[in-house]
């Protein structure tokens, strides 16, 4: 009985023309390749790219996050502001400050996303400030304002409740681990 079923399958396959068979093989191989990938390509590339970052000699002075609920009816449910004050020791300050200023992009890795942050030196020698904003969205109700949804890159690293500050350019990257971010009181717009 099994050989009869196999014979019928072969006969069916022979009835299908060559171009259709080739198409089926290509589609099947693409689908099988997609099933094998455990992470999206962008996540795997990001994690591999930053796995060998040089550790930046930052000392965390203050690492906070503060949520604000908007007062206007829209698809924005919450805004979260991140503020990091870091210090570099005076002995390493000038050399590291030049390297840090050469980074094109800074990101704060929290949860599963990479939030872009801005860098600026502070007036106090050796102190640096990083700040960024993350938006959380929900469905907008009928007639309310719908702002464009900002998406964040996924970093693909298990942080286990911690955060990581990462700066990079085409040639190098620096990273600094943060134990935790202190949550400041919620701001509710009137």
Defining key terms:
single chain, 190 residues, alpha+beta, 11-stranded mixed sheet, 4 helices
Task: Provide a descriptive summary of the structure in words.
By secondary structure, the protein is α+β, with helices and mostly antiparallel strands. It is 27% helix and 37% strand. Strands 1, 2, 3, 4, 5, 6, 7, 8, 9, 10 and 11 form an eleven-stranded mixed β-sheet that branches. Strand 5 (113-121) and strand 6 (127-137) form a beta hairpin. The relative contact order is 0.21.
What would you say about this model in short?
With 190 residues, this protein is of the alpha+beta class. It contains four helices and eleven strands.
By DSSP (H or I, 4+ residues per run), the number of helices equals 4
- Mean pLDDT across all amino acids: 78
* Helix content range: 25-40%
Could you give the order of the helices and strands?
A: HHHEEEHEEEEEEEE
Number of strands: 11
How are the SSEs placed, and which strands pair?
Elements: H1 2-15, H2 18-36, H3 41-49, E1 54-55, E2 58-69, E3 76-88, H4 93-101, E4 105-110, E5 113-121, E6 127-137, E7 153-154, E8 163-168, E9 173-178, E10 182-183, E11 187-188
Parallel strand pairs: 1-9, 2-10, 2-11
Antiparallel strand pairs: 2-3, 3-6, 4-5, 4-8, 5-6, 5-7, 8-9
């Amino acid at each position: 009985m099994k050989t009869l079923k196999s014979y019928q399958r072969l006969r069916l396959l022979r009835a299908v023309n060559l171009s259709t068979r080739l198409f089926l093989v290509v589609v099947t191989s693409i689908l099988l390749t997609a099933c094998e990938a455990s992470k999206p390509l962008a996540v795997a590339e990001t994690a591999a790219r930053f796995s060998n970052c040089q550790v930046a000699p930052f000392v965390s002075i203050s690492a906070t996050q503060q949520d604000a609920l908007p007062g206007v009816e829209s698809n924005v449910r919450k805004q979260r502001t991140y503020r990091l004050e870091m210090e570099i020791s005076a002995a390493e300050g000038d050399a590291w400050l030049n390297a840090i200023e050469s980074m094109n992009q800074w990101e704060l890795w929290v949860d599963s996303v990479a939030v872009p942050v801005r860098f600026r030196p502070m007036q106090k020698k050796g102190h640096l400030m990083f700040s960024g904003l993350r938006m959380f969205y929900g469905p907008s109700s009928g007639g309310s304002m719908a702002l464009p949804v900002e998406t964040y890159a996924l970093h693909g690293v298990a942080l286990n409740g911690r955060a990581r500050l990462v700066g990079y350019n085409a040639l190098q990257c620096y990273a600094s681990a943060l134990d935790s971010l202190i949550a400041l009181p919620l701001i509710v717009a009137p």
